[in-house]
Amino acid sequence: MRAEDLTAVAITSVADAIRLDKTRIKPESTLIGELGAESIDLLDMWFRIHRDSGVEIPGADVAALLRGDLPDDEFSGEMVSEVGLAQLIERVLPQFDRDSLTRPLRSDQVLELVTVGTLIDLAHRLAARDNDPAASREVGAEL
Q: What is the 3-state secondary structure of 13-35?
């Protein structure tokens, strides 16, 4: 599947799962906070992307993308550590404004920061991993 087709599938999946017009879906929109998705909607999005593109998005891959090469303990417990927060902002969610945090980020709030663009990026990374053994090693290191 071409990259632009996969992007279109992801956007359509988001729109259909949360019943919004595709024109309201922007890459920088957060799925939960701005678009109003709930956790069950995220699963629906992942299912739709898989059904329509063949790219499977397991929850473990989402967690691995957010965690990067950091150990689980940077994101487990009640609060995300400073190291974990830096990982999120610098490598995964660069559009997030750290200054907007009024208190430490709780672990259960991390998914609220995921944008449409993050989901699209993940779908592209997983498609590359599935289609190219060399990319699989490279993307696998990131996931």
A: HHHHHHCCCHHHCCCCCECCCCC
User: What whole-number distance in Å separates Cα of residue 49 and Cα of residue 68?
Assistant: 22
Mapped onto helix, strand or coil, the DSSP state of residue 105 is coil
For the record, the structure tokens of 104 come out as: 């430490």
What pLDDT digit, counting tens, does each position of 80-125 carry?
A: 888 888 877 777 777 666 777 767 878 777 788 888 998 998 899 8
Place of tokens 């993940």: 122
- For residue 142, CA distances in Å to 11, 63, 70, 106 come to 23, 11, 10, 23
Rounded Cα–Cα distance for residues 110 and 84 (Å): 10
If one counts every other C-beta atom within 10 angstroms of the C-beta of residue 21, the result is 7
> From CA 127, how far away is CA 33, in angstroms rounded?
27
Closest C-alpha among 5, 132, 115, 142 to residue 61 = 142
CA distance 46 to 49: 5
Q: What is the pTM of this model?
A: 0.77
Give the pair of three-digit tokens for residue 132: 């190219």
CA dist 143 and 2 (Å) reads 22
